[in-house]
């Protein structure tokens, strides 16, 4: 069976939440968000190798939370870098295998489903990459530097999510490049390295918890699921 990995990047500070606690450690449904995310990937497969990338100063906090909540899911915790690019690369360098598939996921997207995870791995195995996305619901306008704007066809655009899944050798090749200011996600790194990107259907439920409103919505969603 092909090796499968997931690098869960959790480097949030909680500033947009208006709190001092890093957002991945905020509780929903009585459990820190990051633990929900880890369990979603574990529910996909007991054989999946899970790497959690955290800022160095937050690792002891995570370990204390694991003891507090008796959370014993087997994960490898990796110190992150100053940027997302560096954090993903740190996680990638901790994978010793030369072949396989690797997904990268936001630690604060706790509603990812096993079906989406599976779709990512299966598509990436065939095409090299699989990037979750959803169509835009609202109308879109392009704003010019002079302040003028014009309508654009929203059907031509997608909102990008995670997981973003890749063949391991391809992913390693992409992350040998120097970091660029326009790298906003792993797909942009892989594309810069000259590899095509395959989009797959994500989910509107697969939200990234960033604001207090997101937290309130997530608390309601957890109650419905449980």
Automatic annotation (TrEMBL):
Pathway where this protein functions: Isoprenoid biosynthesis; isopentenyl diphosphate biosynthesis via DXP pathway; isopentenyl diphosphate from 1-deoxy-D-xylulose 5-phosphate: step 2/6
Swiss-Prot/TrEMBL keywords: Isoprene biosynthesis, Nucleotidyltransferase, Transferase
Feature type site, description Transition state stabilizer: 16, 23
Residues of the site described as Positions MEP for the nucleophilic attack: 154, 208
A GO term for molecular function: 2-C-methyl-D-erythritol 4-phosphate cytidylyltransferase activity
GO terms (BP aspect): isopentenyl diphosphate biosynthetic process, methylerythritol 4-phosphate pathway
CDD domains, per the entry: CDP-ME_synthetase
InterPro entries in the record: IspD, IspD/TarI, IspD/TarI_cytidylyltransf_bact, Nucleotide-diphossugar_trans
EC number: 2.7.7.60
Known catalytic reactions: 2-C-methyl-D-erythritol 4-phosphate + CTP + H(+) = 4-CDP-2-C-methyl-D-erythritol + diphosphate
Family of this protein: Belongs to the IspD/TarI cytidylyltransferase family. IspD subfamily.
The protein's role, per its UniProt record: Catalyzes the formation of 4-diphosphocytidyl-2-C-methyl-D-erythritol from CTP and 2-C-methyl-D-erythritol 4-phosphate (MEP).
NCBIfam families for this protein: ispD, PRK00155.2-3
Protein name: 2-C-methyl-D-erythritol 4-phosphate cytidylyltransferase
Source organism of the structure: Larkinella punicea
Gene name of the encoded protein: ispD
């Amino acid at each position: 069976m092909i090796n499968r990995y997931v690098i869960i990047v959790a480097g949030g500070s909680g500033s947009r939440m208006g709190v001092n606690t890093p957002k991945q450690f905020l509780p929903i449904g009585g459990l820190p968000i990051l633990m929900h995310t880890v369990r979603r990937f574990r529910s996909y497969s007991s054989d999946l190798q899970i790497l959690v990338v955290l800022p160095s100063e937050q690792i002891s906090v995570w370990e204390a939370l694991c003891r507090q909540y008796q959370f014993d899911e087997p994960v490898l915790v990796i110190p992150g870098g100053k940027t997302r690019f560096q954090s993903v690369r740190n996680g990638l360098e901790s994978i010793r295998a030369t072949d396989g598939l690797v997904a990268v996921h936001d630690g604060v997207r706790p509603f990812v489903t096993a079906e989406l995870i599976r779709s990512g791995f299966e598509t990436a195995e065939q095409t090299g990459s699989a990037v979750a996305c959803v169509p835009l619901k609202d109308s879109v306008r392009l704003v010019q530097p002079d302040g003028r704007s014009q309508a654009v066809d929203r059907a031509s655009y997608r909102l990008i999510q995670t997981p973003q899944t890749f063949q391991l050798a391809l992913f390693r090749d992409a992350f040998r490049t120097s970091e660029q200011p326009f790298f906003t996600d792993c797909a942009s790194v892989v594309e810069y390295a000259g590899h095509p990107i395959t989009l797959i259907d994500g989910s509107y439920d697969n939200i990234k918890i960033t604001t207090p409103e997101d937290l309130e919505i997530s608390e309601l969603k957890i109650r419905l699921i449980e």
